[in-house]
Amino acid sequence: MKSKFTCLIICILLFACNNKNTLSFEPLTIATDSCENCTTVTIEIPTAKGNTKLSETINSALEGEIIALLNFDEESNAQNLEDAKKAFVFDYEELNGKFPEESMPWEANIEGTITHENEEIITIEIQTYIYTGGAHGYGTNRYLNFDKVKGSELYQENLFKDIDGFKSFAETLFRKQENIPATGSINDTGFMFETESFYLPDNIGYTENGLILFYEPYEIASFADGPIILTIPYTDANPFLNFPQKL
C-alpha cells in the first residue's frame, strides 16, 4: 500500500515539474550608468525562468519587441537587450557629434508587467517612454499574449473565433464611448481611421478588468489626444474569444 502511495506522489511531482502551464518569473533590469546630461536607458521586465518552450517564447518575444522599440537606426543589428541599449546610446552620440548645439540627451524607459494570467494564457504589457529629440517624447503600451499550453505567442487572428463579429461589436461600443453617431462615418467627430472605416488596433491584450483595445497616439487621432483605449468586459467579449475568461 505504501509503495502505491509513494508511486502516486512521485507521479504527481513529475507531472507538476513537467506541466507546461507552470511558469515563474524573475525581474531583469538593464540600464545605463547614471550620469548628468547624458542619454539614459532603463529596461525593467519579467523574464520567464526555465528551459521550456513557453519560457523561451516569452523571453524571445519580449526581447524582440524591446529591440525594435530602441531601434532608432534601421541599420542596427542588435541581437540582445544589451546590444540594443548600447546601440541607442551610440545613435545619440553619433547625432550629437554632428549637431552638438541642437541635440538633447535621449531617454528610454521600458517596463514590463503581467496584466493577466490563468492556466491557458498570459499577457505581458510593455509600457514605454522614448525621447529622441524634438518637442516631446513618445509613450505607448504594447500587449503580448501567449498560449501557455502550446507555448506560442498569440497574434490578433489567434484571439478570436469570430473576428469580424467582434470588430462589428467593438465598433458599436467604440461609437458609444466616444459619442459618435451610430450611422455615418466613424470619423464624423474628428477621428482619423483610414478609409473612413473602423478597425481594431494592433495592441489588444487581456487584463483583469477585461479585454483592452489600445490605439497608440497617432494611430486614429492626433498626438494631443493621447492613446485611445476601449476596455470590453469579459461578459461581453467572451462569446467572440478563443480564450474566454471565467467570470
TrEMBL record:
- Residue ranges constituting the Deacetylase PdaC domain according to the UniProt record: 36-137
Pfam families, alphabetically?
A: DUF3298, PdaC
Q: Which InterPro entries match?
A: DUF3298, PdaC, PdaC/RsiV-like_sf
Q: Which domain of life is it from?
A: Bacteria
Locate the DUF3298 domain: which residues?
164-234
Name the UniProt record assigns to this protein:
Deacetylase PdaC domain-containing protein
Organism, by scientific name, is Maribacter stanieri
Its organism's taxonomic lineage begins at: Bacteria, Pseudomonadati, Bacteroidota, Flavobacteriia, Flavobacteriales
